Amino acid sequence: MKHYSPTDYVNWLEEYKVRQKAGLEARKIVASFSKRFFSEHVPCNGFSDIENLEGPEIFFEDELVCILNMEGRKALTWKYYAKKILYYLRQQKILNNLKAFLQQPDDYESYLEGAVYIDQYCNPLSDISLRDIQAQIDSIVELVCKTLRGINSRHPSLAFKAGESSMIMEIELQSQVLDAMNYVLYDQLKFKGNRMDYYNALNLYMHQVLIRRTGIPISMSLLYLTIARQLGVPLEPVNFPSHFLLRWCQGAEGATLDIFDYIYIDAFGKGKQLTVKECEYLIGQHVTAALYGVVNVKKVLQRMVGNLLSLGKREGIDQSYQLLRDSLDLYLAMYPDQVQLLLLQARLYFHLGIWPEKSFCLVLKVLDILQHIQTLDPGQHGAVGYLVQHTLEHIERKKEEVGVEVKLRSHEKHRDVCYAIGLIMKHKRYGYNCVIYGWDPTCMMGHEWIRNMNVHSLPHGHHQPFYNVLVEDGSCRYAAQALHRELKSEL
Q1: 452 close to 464: Cβ distance less than 8 angstroms
Q2: Could you tell me which of 335, 344, 328 has the C-alpha nearest to residue 387?
Q3: Which of 14, 100, 121, 186 has the highest count of CB atoms within 10 angstroms of its CB?
Q4: Alpha carbon of 118 to those of 123, 229, 272: distances in Å?
Q5: 130-299 maps to which CATH number?
Q6: Among the ranges given (36-45, 328-337, 378-387), the one the predictor scored with the smallest mean pLDDT
Q7: Residues 233/177, Cβ–Cβ less than 8 Å
Q8: What is the CATH number of domain 412-486?
């Protein structure tokens, strides 16, 4: 019901019919994926059916969520593909929303909204919305107002209504707000900078900052800035090197100001108020006056995504490179002409075999990126030429490849395969429980492995079905059919 306005007239019978039709269409597409795309990655043109769907997208998403929430461990294949489709749909929508958002003029609420788009794009399967995050911040504002009432019961901020953007001009009244904020955030709610686990992507996601009550300088600053502005204190973001800050003007309105007319606030450091000299002590170096200047929404988001990009490069060892891929998408949505990042994206798509889940072919995407790089920076001719050559070779290899053979247990030549994927088994010799996730009609390992594992001593030796199994300790093994029996009544 959150998608409907109380003031709108809705023909609920027609709405039900549309929802029912969308649900049936969603299940039809999910069911088709397991038959068409049985390899690890869904081909990049595999989502074209989804893009051509008619009807409200929210109904299609809702059905996918229903599939994911099905009871227990039922319909795991459907859940697997429903998750992929939902991931794709939401990221596409969020990226389009972000691009439209970046065309809007700056305003104070935009900082939070932009940060939420980044959060949503990196966590598309989580239920994250600007409305929910704003509601949590509003509850913090209420606590601040309660404390502020004890400091000054006639404070003008107490009369503000939700959504108002009035600013208080008196420094003393602003100071009272900041004192109340510091007490509520750091003493009452125990928010703090995450020094123990600084290089964790969760520190940059606003919904996680509110849940875990910790973050890094930029995310803590955005929270602090949003609360302060709702209460009438016109703080501004400062893209200070190595440590994001906020600035608070102490000069008279209309006067010519320099960096010494501001107090700088460290939201990561419990709202500590700093002078220019103390800011330099904070990072251990002298910086120019330009670095104390205010930055717009796009620059703030650039720094947030830049942090995620650095973390993505660190976490590549997980083999999925999902954070790196997501942060590259976000950065290039804001700055599409960044040559080095375009090259990195091309290398990811090609060398690492990561297939972008978009509506166009991988190799054409790589060639488009490389052509764009060549236009932007002819000096990259060598790197671009190398990647173009290998991309074209990849195209030729694809033309020659034969489709992957689907093994069917029902086929006559596989009549000796007794067990299906998904069955829970017990090893007769070692007693461990496991689940089958693949099989071969005969042992496909080399002669040395067969000899070392003493396979010849088994009934039928290597001339019997072998199974890929996932063991309860998390290990994967390859074992003969003769060594397993199906678990039924024991479970």
Answers
A1: no
A2: 344
A3: 121
A4: 9, 21, 27
A5: 3.10.620
A6: 36-45
A7: yes
A8: 2.30.30
